[in-house]
Amino acid sequence: MPAQLLSQPNPPPDPSHIPDSILSLRVDVPKNVLSSNELDSIRRFRRAADYIAAAMIFLKSNTLVEEPIKPDDIKHRLLGHWGTCPGLVLVYAHLNAIITRTNLNSLLVVGPGHGAPAILACLWLENSLATFWPKYTRDRQGLSALIRGFSVPGGFPSHINAETPGSIHEGGELGYALSVSFGAVMDKPDLVVCCVVGDGEAESGPTATAWHAYKYIDPAESGAVLPIVHVNGFKISERTIYGCMDDKELTALFVGYGYQPRFVEELNDIDQDLASSMQWALDEIHKIQKAARSGNPIVKPRWPVLILRTPKGWSTIKSLHGEYIEGSFRSHQVPLPEAKNDPEERKMLQAWLESYKPSEVLPNGEPSEEVLSIIPKEDKLKLGQKKEAYAAYEPIDVPAWIDHGVKKGTQESCMKVVGKFLNLVTHSNPTSFRIFSPDELVSNKLDAVLEDADSGRNFQWDPASRAKGGRVIEILSEHTCQGMLQGYTLTGRTGLFPSYEAFLGIVHTMMVQYSKFVKMAHETTWRQPVGSLNYLETSTWARQEHNGFSHQNPAFIGAVLDLKPSLARVYLPPDANCFLSTVAHCLRAKDYVNLMVGSKQPTPVWLSPEEADRHCIAGASIWKFASTDDGLEPDVVLVGIGVEVTFEVIAAAALLRKLVPQLRVRVVNVTDLMILGPQGSHPHALEDTDWDALFTGDGESDGKGRRYIHFNYHGYPVELKGLLFGRQGLERVTIEGS
After folding, report:
1. For residues 670 and 676, what is the distance between their CA atoms, to the nearest angstrom?
2. Where is the Xylulose 5-phosphate/Fructose 6-phosphate phosphoketolase C-terminal domain positioned along the sequence (predicted)?
3. What is the pLDDT of residues 13-56, one digit of tens each?
4. DSSP alpha helices (H): ranges in 29-113?
5. How many Å apart are CA 460 and CA 300, to the nearest integer?
6. Which residue blocks in 294-411 are alpha helix, DSSP H?
7. From start to end of 441-529, where are the E strands?
8. Strand boundaries in 310-432, DSSP class E
């Protein structure tokens, strides 16, 4: 069966065997929020936005269909996803209306990121596109530019990304919208993030766990997330799980998660239904927050969730060539794929677009007064112009680490020392720094951050950590930690993600998607810097005394190395003082993906705090104390990159001095991996002259003969080979690694 067989459009789920009594736990509300004028304005806004979204997929000219559509009016290649657009427009229109009515401080996070036409259409209507992209003025010329340029070079892509005003979530990979939303509201008590979760996305593992994230939200100190599950029933070619669940099953599911579910599914009165439901949800949020902020928190509050049932591709053509379109998977992308070449499809396209009556809602290519009436009057309230989404970064107060360094020549756990420092960071930044960890802080010997209640855990369902202002989120889901970290970071704060080395790879693709967002943000003129995404990787492969092979995998280093050079930073500090210096630097840095790798076990402190500071600034240095004659005129260079492997290098150098005293050995430690690439390949890459000074020249130009270089590397050798490629004299290099 190549695709889903359908006996009817928008097929209902089979009834379940759950007792009807479960339905008493779903919420019913009176549908009387909107006045007749508001209702008319919302419907007109929806018609205008639906029209623009559909036109973006198909048209390159005749953008207001003021004459019959000709083949030349249609784009050569039709790209975009229509199926989710009507639902997204519906949500956007009602969020606008409630913001206008209540001055709600809100962001919109869109899980179905492939619905970019819907969001771009709404942004154009509220004049947020023109604010950041002047060519998309709110007039005929700007509208034509938007429609004509969608999904072609120079225009907006088919997925939401950093070029989309108001967005804090890369729209390509599904599963992370909910956790990003929860991270965004932390420490922002007045912010409500409306998060649309598609029913396809709802099938993903990360989304399934993220429903628990509200259990880490203290309503006294943080804002709230209003999840809207958009159940339109279909993915690309098959029905969704949620679409095959009846109201009893979905009620049981969300009540079990701890939510109050409200179904929005009365299609004939969908606007009153959704408006009343959103107002109820906002009232519930305010009730929970008021109780917490008055000192009488509700224990285990049941937060609202809206379950929105609308047909897939709502308002498009009903059928084509005997197949259902609206209410089926065939509306997921382009409902009329041959409109350019098939006169019958072109005629249907004309009728479809004209059904929105663009001359009424977009007279002469501009929104009508009725459409504009539900858009917030103040720019700062518009969803596309929220500073939380593009200009909210505030640097944190990082204590002077050097005052907390440890004595040279002792044995110290890097993580224990760093844990004490991070405890200071949390106290210095009680509303702008958090640690997101998959239940590994104690194991990773970072438990000093848990010593004080106001810097410890923030698990609201545990009486021991409830309402204590803790800065630590521990949940055994790397995906949820990553999503929360992204939302927290992109809305202006700073976070840290400590993890076992072997399991950071779980969030590899999430990290890549985030880096794409930041890359595109750099290419805009209006997105301001954000804090860096900071990973602290320990419990490394080199010291797995009681776990073994299953816990040995340093591959996340390679994942970060594959990012754009402007973003990627990888550090392998060799001792506790170097790690302190590195952590302090990364917490101050902006717009990077920082990976710090080190040991949790006690290891030698090779450098004093002052020496460590100089070493980390340089990125690498000759360790004279471990070299022959301070490393002058070496016959061989031994390079350590990582904690335990550096210990091996120093031991090997000592052994060589004993066994082969005539061999002159230079020991080099590299703490900043990015210095090793060819000159110009990375902002940190050493100039050729500095490379030669550190690792020696090729032996021909200076007449001193070939000097071999041996790298003892913490990660996989293939990573280092790729990084070094392009340097001269690599035939004298050997590498050992994990």
Report:
1. 9
2. 600-737
3. 999 999 999 999 999 999 999 999 999 999 999 999 999 999 99
4. 36-58, 85-102
5. 8
6. 343-354, 358-361, 369-372
7. 472-474, 494-500
8. 319-320, 323-324, 411-413
